[in-house]
Design a protein that fits this description.
Number of strands: 5
Oligomer: single chain
CATH class: Alpha Beta
Radius of gyration: 15 Å
Order of helices and strands: HEEHEEEHHH
Helix content: 40-55%
Number of helices: 5
CATH superfamily: Beta Polymerase, domain 2
CATH architecture: 2-Layer Sandwich
Amino acid sequence: MDIKEVEALIVNTLEDSKGRDIQVMDVKGISSFADLMVVATGTSTTHVKSLGAHVEKAFKDAGEQPLGVEAGPQPDWVLVDLGNAIVHVMTEGARAHYALEKLWDVKSQAAAEVEAE
């Protein structure tokens, strides 16, 4: 499965499962462990856990076994490692706290540094 197919399956699965604010980030130039990172929001810990399970199942059904899924018993964050793509599903509170989009937005950080000089 190429990276565009991986992205499409992730996004479609999250949309079908009512994931909110789905953001896809191309991190291949700044990450040694993945080419793609996807962040989505669930409305509750139950929804977050369900979204992660749906992504895991979609890839298993497509013959692509995830490398790992990390979540606690009442997760506010579920991580699905698909090898070349990482999926983060979080509650609104966890997403605001960790701000992964800002952490991985190197282009904006670089532009801000240039402006500051």
